[in-house]
Amino acid sequence: MLRAQPGYPAVAKDVESGNAEAPVIRSWYMRLQAIDPLTGVERMPVNEAIYRALETVLHDMSYRLSA
Questions:
Q1: Residue 8 needs a FRET pair 20 to 30 A away by CA distance; which of 15, 22, 54, 62 works?
Q2: What's the CA gap between 33 and 42, in Å, rounded?
Q3: Residue (of 30, 31, 28, 8) closest to 20 by Cα position
Q4: Is the pTM of this model over 0.70?
């Protein structure tokens, strides 16, 4: 993670010291639940969530292209 995001420790220290705001997770949760009430509340590994999201988007895309 440090190689991918070298500035991450500095950001974490800023949030911890009060110089920056941490993201509000509740707002993301509410947005996910509004998009899909059934799967928006389900907890799963990140890889599975990405797989399901791609599956949904690609399915919708193929439906729109065939119409």
A1: 54
A2: 10
A3: 8
A4: no
